[in-house]
Amino acid sequence: MAEQADPAAGAAVPMRLLAATDLSSRADRALRRAVMLARSVGAELLLLHAVDDDRPRSLVEAASREARRLLREQAASLPELHGVQARQVIEEGDPFEAILRVADAEAADLVVVGEHRRRLLRDIFVGTTLERVLRHGQRPVLTVRAAPAGPYRHVVAATDFSLHAARAIRAAERLGLLRGAELTVLHAFEPPGLGAMALADAPPAAAAAHEAEAARQASSALAAFLADSLPGMAAERRVVQGRPATAIKEMVARLRPDLLVVGTAGAGALRRAVLGSVAAEVLGAVGCDALAVPPEAPR
């Protein structure tokens, strides 16, 4: 059983996963992935549904009773749930607020959500429940898009060599998402000074040499990042030139991984207002499952 130390008690406690569902058939993929993951790491599983409380009290209570019944039925329809310690939670309020509230109250190690509105998520990502959970939360969030057929086999992790990127990859490992999977660590770079060289009408050979040197430096930096921040972790290294968000999306489309791992560090104190621009653009566009890990909460 995967456990983590409880600093207050000095003992190890099981992981806890929170799976949010809107009770639709579309939510089955996320629930099945959450059950599969909970079983693999020996984690406790919370099944959460939020009930709209912006109605008369009698209607809210009736909706809560019906939601509890439907949640029991949905859980019963998952044969994979047998043998997994699971609790069903009905929470009142806006879905994103309910997810954050329960995740914090239960000290969830991971929040698992489904892609309920594909067009909204892809086209107008900002403002969705998922984006708000990522922007305001302090917990890793696994977005499930594909029907789970087994453990993840190929994982791509994007890095900018920051502590946040290393933390995201370590979180994926701790949560059991890398177990048995091929890991590719990807860095996208833009050679500095290319614009100035173009304005100066530099010879094509000089620009090509500059790009080659920038690629060499990026490759060396990626190797150093893995050795220093993720020692002992086996991974394929990939360095690609281009605008980071665009290059990551293109490589995900080309490599077709089961899972993408990204850190969601925004611009310092503005993180609560703006999700990291690269993370926001990538998470709203890729077709595979995605693990988004926020920066460590300030102490």
Describe this structure in words.
This protein has 299 residues and is α/β, with parallel strands linked by helices. The chain contains 10 helices and 12 strands. The chain has helices at 28-41, 57-76, 95-105, 118-123, 129-136, 163-174, 194-199, 204-229, 244-255, 277-283; strands at 3-6, 11-14, 16-20, 44-51, 86-92, 110-114, 141-144, 154-158, 182-189, 236-241, 259-263, 289-293. The strands form 2 sheets. Strands 5-4-3-6-7-12-11-8-9-10 form a 10-stranded mixed beta sheet, with helices on both faces. Strand 4 (44-51), helix 2 (57-76) and strand 5 (86-92) form a beta-alpha-beta unit. The model is unreliable at 118-127 and 267-274 (pLDDT under 50).
Radius of gyration computed on alpha carbons: 21 Å
Q: Could you tell me the strand content as a percent range?
A: 15-25%
User: Terminal Cα separation, in Å?
Assistant: 28 Å
Q: Helices and strands, in N-to-C order? A: EEEHEHEHEHHEEHEHHEHEHE
What general form does the structure show? elongated
Which strand order do you get reading across the main beta sheet? 5-4-3-6-7-12-11-8-9-10
Question: Residue ranges: pLDDT <50 for 5 or more in a row?
Answer: 118-127, 267-274
- What class, by secondary structure content? alpha/beta
Number of strands: 12
Largest sheet: 10 strands, mixed
Residue share in helix: 40-55%
Determine the number of helices (DSSP H or I, runs of at least 4 residues). Answer: 10
Average residue pLDDT: 83
